[in-house]
Structure prediction request, 252 residues.
Amino acid sequence: MPHTAFITGATSGFGRACAHRFADAGWNLVLSGRRSDRLQEIQDALQARCAVHTISLDVRDTAAVQDAVASLPQPFSEVHVLVNNAGLALGTAPAQHSDLEQWHRMIDTNIKGLTTVTHALLPTLVARGRGTSIINIGSVAGHWPYPGGNVYCGSKAFVEQFSLALRSDLQGSGVRVSCLAPGLSESEFTLVRTGGDQAAYDALYAGADPIQPQDIADTVFWLATLPAHLNVNSLELMPVSQSWSPFTISRR
Ligand code: NDP
Ligand code: 8X3
Prediction:
């Protein structure tokens, strides 16, 4: 019987590319996101290749997440891989000029939402055991601070450390946990972050040869299909065009 992957944030970017990658390999798919029209489009595109169950779901809604997981029909209830991908950045303003509501939305989505989905699926992953995986999408923002990153950076640092701590708790269960931390990647992420600023999107990616969602999907699929005795704890991925800047020093 094909394995099942549960992917959050499957309506766009990395999550949608992951759905296509797992579908190519014939996996059963549980695909979630808030935009039900997008979910329908993806289901229509994939259903010739694999079985698809879609859930219109906001990961910030704890009761809805728990209900969606508890009511997964067969064969989708036997989840082998959770791809915790739903997330967002909002704004690029320095902390002292930022919007508290945006901070709270990032925390509620990137931290609380991710932990809620994980908590709901842990029992079934532990029941399957060896060969199953949780793949959390972190970010270089969780490793390296940058101006205007503030709460987004903090939320992704949480994802990194939560992933490592989960590994400790899951010792002996056979369940793997990986945190994949991409750098500059081309997706709607930048439109969401800038409130739909297409010029900012174009300027960010121009000439940078950024990571593409397909690159992330191939990496996630590789992580999910490694031999069952191997665990990649943390994997940072950047485009070749991206690296670090020197420390900044303000002088009197
Ligand atoms: P996109 O904006 O293209 O995709 C984000 C996905 O998250 C969408 O499917 C969206 O679905 C979903 N989502 C957002 N909020 C919620 C919510 N409250 N409930 C359920 N789903 C939600 O961005 P990416 O594909 O680039 O981002 C995917 C992940 O990768 C994010 O966690 C992001 O932080 C991370 N990342 C992105 C990088 C980049 O440069 N693009 C680099 C490193 C990490 P919907 O709107 O339908 O709910
Ligand atoms: C997205 C990458 O550098 O915009 O997580 O924070 S970055």
